[in-house]
Design a protein that fits this description.
heterodimer, A: 178 residues, alpha+beta, five-stranded mixed β-sheet, 5 strands, globular, B: 178 residues, alpha/beta, two-stranded antiparallel sheet, 9 strands, 22% strand
């Protein structure tokens, strides 16, 4: 039953937030939590990898908030998704990872202003939890894929169990091209 | 975790010695707090998940027990009771559980040390800790699925959920949502 452990259960698709194209040679899916310090460490590494790999890489981010451990993880994930509903997902994603220690409601509203969202409607959508279902869908897809902590990476659908420093991750991506 | 030698034969895949699907789950009584205990036989009538893990306080963010804590609502949908088990004592478990805000019991296989893990075939004599092993037991006390992970690898929860879904309706029906 566990033979398929560590395989992406929900394929990369149009529903996802991506940087790059779906048909790229390598698809890297991250399950992450905006308040997780290890995800924060991975954030600049991923930026560098994207630069190095260019259009061979399609990077996808899915939410995996560890809400019992990180009190702001859920609302931060919803904030990114609300921004995403207004085509500003990556702007908010970057803002959150660059300000991981400031994820209170007031901060989130400031970030919304900074990236050019309508502050009042952003706040209302957050309060109404319009993105809660989407975040939960991501979370469950991660559970069913064998996500075992954050950040969790899947390279062309297979869980990467090694470390996520630049060299290791890059080597794993290059290997998947063979 | 290198000293635990995740490549030892007993750590890879499902070793022959761990009890497996179809076996009757050995009964046990273990402390869950300094003054309370739980017996497996008390839980007859609902599915039980046993998660043996090497030690409290593993130094990672998404550690296995913290992950299961996040996924608890999914286990509860199947009316399943999750029990974490290690050789740590009750006061250690209490501190760990409190720190990680765990909402399920941690049982102390402490005295005689590892006695329950030995019954289930998942004790590592050399290191004096349990394997990282999962058992899903049905409402009648029969093991329906088991998995021993390499000790350094958190197995996630997808195997558990698949096993719960495969149980006959009768063992899970009470917890089914309309």
């Amino acid at each position: 039953m566990s033979e398929t452990a560590g395989t992406l259960s929900l394929k990369a698709g149009e529903r996802d937030h991506m940087q790059g194209l779906l048909g790229a040679a390598i698809t890297l899916v991250e399950y992450g939590d905006y308040e997780c310090p290890y995800c924060g460490q991975a954030y600049p590494i991923l930026k560098e990898l994207q630069q190095l790999m260019g259009d061979r890489l399609c990077f996808i981010f899915r939410n995996f908030p560890l809400a019992q451990m990180h009190p702001h993880a859920q609302i931060a994930a919803e904030a990114a998704e609300v921004a995403g509903a207004h085509d500003k997902f990556w702007e908010m994603h970057d803002m959150l990872y660059e300000n991981q220690k400031a994820l209170g409601m007031g901060h989130l509203k400031q970030y919304a202003d900074k990236i050019g969202l309508d502050g009042a409607s952003f706040a209302q959508e957050l309060q109404e939890h319009t993105a809660e279902g989407r975040v939960h869908e991501d979370f469950l897809s991660g559970v069913r894929s064998g996500v075992n902590g954050t950040p969790a990476f899947f390279i062309n659908g297979v869980r990467h169990d090694g470390s996520y420093d630049l060299q290791v991750l890059r080597a794993a991506l290059e290997r998947s091209l063979d | 975790m290198n000293s635990l030698d995740p490549n030892s034969p007993a750590a890879a895949g499902t070793p022959a010695k761990a009890i497996s699907a179809g076996d009757s789950a050995p009964d046990f009584t273990m402390s869950c707090t300094p003054d309370q205990s739980i017996s497996l036989s008390e839980l007859r009538g609902r599915p039980v998940i046993l998660a043996f893990y090497p030690a409290d306080w593993s130094p990672v963010c998404g550690d296995q027990m913290a992950l299961y804590n996040e996924i608890l609502p999914e286990f509860q949908r199947h009316n399943a009771m999750l029990l974490g088990i290690s050789v740590d004592g009750t006061w250690c478990h209490a501190a760990f559980s409190n720190d990680r805000h765990l909402h399920f019991p941690l049982l102390a296989d402490f005295e005689p040390k590892g006695a329950v893990a030995k019954k289930y075939g998942v004790y590592r004599e050399k290191e004096g800790i349990t394997e990282r092993a999962l058992f899903v037991i049905d409402a009648e006390g029969i093991v329906r699925w088991s998995y021993v992970s390499p000790v350094g690898v958190n197995p996630g929860a997808d195997g558990i959920l698949s096993a719960l879904e495969s149980l006959p309706q009768s063992s899970a029906q009470e917890g089914k949502q309309p």
